[in-house]
Write a structure and sequence with these properties.
With about 350 residues, the protein is an alpha/beta fold. The protein has helices spanning about 10-25, 35-40, 45-50, 60-70, 85-95, 100-110, 135-140, 165-175, 195-200, 315-325, 330-335; strands spanning about 5-10, 30-35, 55-60, 75-80, 95-100, 115-120, 150-155, 185-190, 205-210, 225-230, 235-240, 245, 250, 255-260, 280, 285-290, 295-300, 310-315, 345. The two termini are about 25 Å apart.
């Protein structure tokens, strides 16, 4: 942390959020989705997630799964498709795989890998998953003859805010599984963060996937912020009226003014689009000005700001949502783009 630029992770808040979610929404299994560096929080956040009682993990890639396996023996589901030549890595690391297409199943069904699998259904998002009932039926009816253990069947809701589309996805899931006794499937999961809070639990669903909701982003529950991003003032410059600032001279001083230089930039995930958004110094709001550089950016300053003052670039969930709205994106992207060059500092009263 030589440049005093870091993300602070409030593990107590993360733990409390999960406990509150579990108290409100009852399931047999809680899959913590920790893809993309645990939504930017880093693998260190895993301890609070497990302490709070999540009993399964999910990641997007095999690389993420193997890295996560270094820290825990908890079951891990790889949501993305694993290349067939990499299946031995899953065996060696006890990684559960997703069967995302009928052709993939046909390609692997005669292999002798002792793997646990979940079948992904395409109920309307048209990204990954099996779309046709006859394909699912064939897989289900033949998988007992293979070396694979069928543990789960799942799908994904693409727009929980749209009740008509979401209910149509539920109906499609029920139709696709109509010849399967889902009570014999250990884990059946459709609902992720927003879906869990917006819709009643269906009788045949026994598993919830917790993603962004763990980190306090939820409209229907009062949850705590878990992520903040900080740096410091490393130089204060005075500009005369008409002087330009930074690359392309994108900012021109309209009068004599002070600016602060902060050692964080788009190389750390603070994109050039962050210009004109607010940061906080000594609990006061100041705008980012000029073009954001790879390793530094500029903010407004005044006489109250001193060298080495802390600059808070992402204050809490409300601030993250505000920046996401200004950038015409979503809070997920704000968190996930904070790069690995930024150290994560974990604050936690361990529950273990």
């Amino acid at each position: 942390m030589y440049r005093q630029t870091y993300a602070k992770i409030n593990m107590n808040a993360l733990y409390n959020n999960i406990i509150k979610i579990k108290e409100q929404y009852k399931y047999d299994y809680y899959i913590a989705v920790i893809k993309s560096n645990c939504y930017g929080h880093g693998i260190g956040a895993l301890q609070a997630i497990l302490d709070a009682g999540c009993n399964y993990l999910a990641v997007a890639t095999l690389e993420e799964a193997v890295q996560t396996r270094l820290y825990t023996d908890t079951p891990i589901l790889c949501l993305g498709t694993v290349n067939i030549q990499d299946l031995p890595i899953c065996v060696n690391n006890n990684i559960t795989i997703s069967i995302n297409t009928y052709d993939y199943y046909k390609a692997i069904k005669d292999l002798s890998y002792p793997l646990t699998v979940h079948i992904k259904l395409n109920t309307g998002m048209n990204r990954l998953g099996i779309k046709h009932k006859h394909e699912l039926d064939e897989i289900y009816n033949s998988i007992s003859e293979t070396s694979y253990k069928l543990e789960g069947i799942f799908s994904h809701i693409y727009d929980p805010g749209n009740k008509e589309d979401t209910n149509a996805q539920f109906d499609t899931f029920a139709y696709l599984c109509s010849d399967i006794d889902l009570t014999k499937i250990k884990m059946v999961h459709i609902a992720a963060s927003d879906t869990i809070t917006r819709y009643p639990r269906l009788d045949y669903i026994n598993t919830a996937r917790l993603g962004i909701i763990m980190f306090g982003f939820c409209q229907l529950l009062e949850l705590e912020s878990t992520f903040s991003l900080h740096s410091q003032v490393i130089q204060i410059n005075e500009l005369e009226a008409g002087e330009k600032l930074g690359y392309k001279g994108a900012y021109v001083a309209s009068q004599k003014e002070k600016i602060a230089v902060v050692p964080i930039g788009y190389g750390d995930g603070l994109l050039r689009a962050y210009t004109n958004n607010n940061v906080y110094i000594n609990n006061r709001s100041y705008k980012i000005i000029g073009n954001v550089c790879m390793d530094m950016l500029f903010t407004q300053a005044d006489n109250s700001i001193k060298l080495h003052d802390t600059v808070t670039l992402l204050k809490d969930n409300a601030h993250i949502n505000e920046i996401a709205k200004n950038l015409n994106t979503i809070n997920y992207e704000i968190l996930c783009t904070v790069g690995s060059r930024v150290p994560r500092i974990y604050e936690y009263d361990s529950k273990s």
